[in-house]
Amino acid sequence: MQRVLEVTSVDLSLVKTKPPQIHIVTHGTVPTSGWKHPRLSPWFYILPPADGIQDFDFVADAPTGIVLEVITTIVAEAVIPRDPADYWGPGKALRGVRIHARSNTKEASLDTSDNAKQAVALSGGDAIPWPWWLPTEPGACDLIGKVLRVYHTGDMLDRSYRTDRGNIELDPTTERVVRIWCG
Questions:
Q1: Cα-to-chain-centroid distance, residue 40
Q2: How high is the mean pLDDT in each 10-residue block of the chain (183 residues)?
Q3: How far is Cα 111 from Cα 175, in angstroms, rounded to an integer?
Q4: Can you give the pLDDT at residue 48?
Q5: For position 143, what pLDDT does the model report?
Q6: How far apart are CA 134 and CA 156, in angstroms?
Q7: Which pLDDT score, from 0 to 100, does residue 118 have?
Q8: Residue 41, beta-bridge partner list
Q9: Structural contact between residues 164 and 158, judged by C-beta atoms closer than 8 angstroms
Q10: d(CA 151, CA 138)
């Protein structure tokens, strides 16, 4: 496990649950092909940091065989099952996250009012937002780590079956999600 070369972006949002959870999506680069299992490794503190920001190392498993010497994009995400308002203890809120790579560091602030609106907007306001939805119906799938094809009901699709592809079907008039499936 090593830190990735560079952090290129950090997105921080609030998952609409009770209590709310924190969702982090981080994009970065690695110096060669073949890196596996990207993840965010949290720092552990004896005392909460004064700035209220949680630090993470953006790490992945380095390749062991023949690799291509090419800068490659890598993505890691994490869900923190902790109420951001009491993250550091009662009344001590999380203010943001800081992601560390070998060559740089990036921060993202947690603005609960905007993130709560974003979480509600993703789901239409009446369900859990789909990136955090657990597949329960037959043919449903987990979209994390998949290539996505987004299409409207009635669009022509090729018949190729790909296990690494998630499909999102949208209603052509309302642009709302009708179905999510893999293949």
A1: 10
A2: 92 83 90 90 88 92 88 89 86 91 91 47 40 48 72 84 79 80 76
A3: 27
A4: 87
A5: 65
A6: 28
A7: 43
A8: 57
A9: no
A10: 20
Query: Looking at residue 126, what is its pLDDT?
Result: 39
Two tokens, residue 76: 């890691």
By C-alpha distance, which of 154, 105, 130 is closest to 6?
105
* Residue (of 174, 106, 160, 168) closest to 131 by Cα position: 168
Judge whether 116 and 13 are in contact, CB under 8 Å: no
**Structure tokens given for 141:** 């799938």
- Among left, alpha and beta (phi > 0; psi -120 to 50; other), residue 168 is beta
Output the 3-class SS for 127-181.
CCCHHHCCCCCCCCCCCCCCEEEEEECCCCCCCCCCCCEEEEEECCCCCCEEEEE
Q: Which residue has the tokens 């943001």?
A: 96
Q: How far apart are CA 130 and CA 18, in angstroms?
A: 16
| Residue 95: per-residue pLDDT | 92
Is the whole model's pTM more than 0.90, yes or no? no
For the stretch 37-44, contacts whose Cβ atoms lie closer than 8 Å and that sit 24 or more positions apart, written own/partner, are 37/61, 38/4, 38/74, 38/75, 38/76, 39/76, 39/78, 40/76, 40/77, 40/78, 40/99, 41/1
Q: 3-class SS at 19?
A: coil
State the pLDDT at residue 22: 87
